[in-house]
Every structure is written in structure tokens, then in C-alpha cells.
Amino acid sequence: MPNLKKYKYMAVLVLALFAVGCSSTSKKELKPQALEKITTEVSLKKEWSKSVGAGQGRLWNNLAPAVDGNQIYTADVKGRVMALDRFTGKTLWTRKLKLDVSGGVGAASGMVLLGTLAGDVIALDAATGEDLWRSKVSSEVLSAPVTNGDVVVVQTQDDRLIGLEAQSGQQRWIYESTPAVLTLRGSGTPIVTDYVAYAGLSTGKVVAIDTQRGLPVWEQRIAIPTGRTELERMVDIDGDLLLSGNVLYVVSYQGRLAGLDPQSGQVLWQREASSYVGVAEGYGNAYVSLADGVIESVDERSATAMWSNTDLMRRQLTAPAVFSSYIAVADLEGYLHVLSQVDGRFVARTKVDGKGVRVQPLVVGGWMYVYGNGGKLVALTIK
């Protein structure tokens, strides 16, 4: 049997090569595009910053912070978990789990949820940081476990979705899916509503699962593998899905950007795209950071590009986040770029973490939180 874990780690290197691009003539990697000077139109105010241990680590982790109420929760790769006041940055509690955390953070219903490389799912009390329960799943957890208060839904690296009892961590159901032979390392965070959980798989499919029984409500293929090699056939959905209004937004690597009907899975619109990060939405447009560093605004009615910004090529961008009437993305050098939703022009830029930023900026109630690879968490507002 092939060593799938080995292949998945190899794919991290593949992803990095795709992101920076290669020259077909010189066979040398093209460097990230140099930043040009911009005219600042919007003032960003740093409200506070905090160091969160070791940050993301070296294994392409995407440990994103999570907000629940007035608290923001964050974790580093070595198992340091912190609860902060999201307005002041004051530390409310800290836990040191002494485990290699690879999936997190989920926060809802009084719980803070994390996953580990060893396949542990950990639920902490959101008020104190004390253990509520721990549960073992089939393989490493590379995205945040999520909950609706009744069930905790976990996506594992082997493309399984597992439902755990929110009160005890006992397994309620498991949805089995055969992963692609070669995949990018990672998985998007599932979305869970009262009755349905949505997830993207390494095979280019989106599934909707009944949270009570674990049975599929529908399945929809977003991308069809093509090409002669396994590299060419990778169509992972690694970015987070987005449920906004009556549309479920999804983008795949070497596949498509699409809007789906969350009730039936019907494709409402679609457009060719390649991205390994998630989608943002605003003003009737979907915003996506493509694998080559182009940022596109796509009109949902016509599935045509309203604008494209090509000034951040090969800079390994995060997923965009809607911030007021702007969108924000961060890059491998730790710069946060703020663009107009109207035409994609730059309106602000600031450096957050010298080791880069990998996770999507988190926007809640007019505040934006950016968590850098080196462990720096920064809270920003617009003046």
C-alpha cells in the first residue's frame, strides 16, 4: 500500500512551486512579484497585538483564530491555547496542551475545539480552558472542528467526516469517502448548521451531511480531474466554504469557483478557477485569491470577472476577507493588503508578521484580526 502521508507532504512542496511559478525557459523559480508603492486612502489603526507562542510551524498548518462573543481564541502548533478579550487583547486564560495542534480553532456553544496530528479532537471549556473531553478519530485533523451545540463535526485528512456528541465527544456517525491518490496537505473547515454539515473533499466534491445520522443529503462535483499525471489531476477543495444568504460558495484547486444552492447542491453559477484558499463575498460579487496570486472579483449573476488585480503574483496569498467596503488579503512576507471592492485598487498596506501570513484575516463587527505564521496576532480597525 502506498504511503499516502508521504505523498501528502510531498504535495506541500508542489504547492509552493506552483505558488511561486516556474520559468519554462530558465527552469528557475520566479520570485514573488515585488511590491509597488501605493497611495494610501484608508488608515488602519492597530488596536493591539499579542504573541501567541510558536505560531503556525513548518508543516503548512492553517491555525486560524476564532471569535465567540467578546472573546477571541487562538492556538499555536505546539499546543499553546489562549483566550483573549477581542477588544483589548487582555489574556483571559492560557493552556499548554503539549500536543502538536494542526486543526483549529473552533469556538461556539461554550467550547473551544482543536485537532492534532495524532488524530485527537479536544474540547476545552471556553470560560476556563479546562478539558471537557478528548476523542480519537481516524487520522490527522488539519482544519478546525466545528459545532452547532449538538454535534461536533470533524474533517480528517483521509476525507472522512465524523460527528461527535457535543457533550461527551462520543462518536455519533462517520461519513466515509475515498481520498484522491495525491492531495495538497490540508482541508477546509466544514460548515455546520442546525441540521446539515457542508464540507469540501480532495476529490473536488462538496457534500452535505445530515448532522443527526451522518447520511448524505446531496453531493456535488465542482472539479473533474484531468491530465495524465496525478499532479495534473489534483482538484482539492482546501479552502473554507462560505455560506452566505442562500448561496454556498466554494473554490477548488485546478477546478472551478462556484455558487451552490445549499438545499439541493444545484450549481447556480460557476467559473474556471484554481485556488487552494477560500472565498469571500460582498456587493453581489465573489472574491477569490487564485493560486498564481491574481485576485479576482466575480459577478454572481454572470460569472464574469468584474476586475482582476495582478500586482501580487506568486506572493502566496491568503483567502480574501471582506472588511467594510474593502477586501483584505495577506501574503508570504507578512504584508496585509487592503483593496477596494469596487475596482480592486490598493487603498492600504501594513506589515503584520515578518514570517508571513497564511490564514485568512478574520473580520468580526468592524474589527479585523490577522494571525501571522510567527505567532503574532494583530487587531486592526479602520480610522
What's the helix and strand layout?
Elements: H1 4-20, E1 44-51, E2 66-68, E3 71-75, E4 80-85, E5 91-96, E6 101-108, E7 111-116, E8 120-125, E9 131-136, E10 146-147, E11 151-155, E12 161-165, E13 171-175, E14 191-192, E15 196-200, E16 205-210, E17 216-221, E18 242-244, E19 247-251, E20 255-260, E21 267-273, E22 279-282, E23 285-289, E24 295-299, E25 305-309, E26 321-323, E27 326-330, E28 335-340, E29 346-351, E30 362-364, E31 367-371, E32 376-382
Antiparallel strand pairs: 1-32, 2-3, 3-4, 4-5, 6-7, 7-8, 8-9, 10-11, 11-12, 12-13, 14-15, 15-16, 16-17, 18-19, 19-20, 20-21, 22-23, 23-24, 24-25, 26-27, 27-28, 28-29, 30-31, 31-32
Please give a structural write-up.
It is a lipid-anchor. The protein is mainly beta and 383 residues long. It has one domain: 7 Propeller (Methylamine Dehydrogenase, Chain H), CATH 2.130.10.10. The chain is 4% helix and 43% strand. It contains one helix and 32 strands. It has one helix at residues 4-20; strands at 44-51, 66-68, 71-75, 80-85, 91-96, 101-108, 111-116, 120-125, 131-136, 146-147, 151-155, 161-165, 171-175, 191-192, 196-200, 205-210, 216-221, 242-244, 247-251, 255-260, 267-273, 279-282, 285-289, 295-299, 305-309, 321-323, 326-330, 335-340, 346-351, 362-364, 367-371, 376-382. Strands 1-32-31-30 form a four-stranded antiparallel sheet, with no helix packed on it. Strand 12 and strand 13 (171-175) form a beta hairpin. The protein is globular and about 55 Å long.
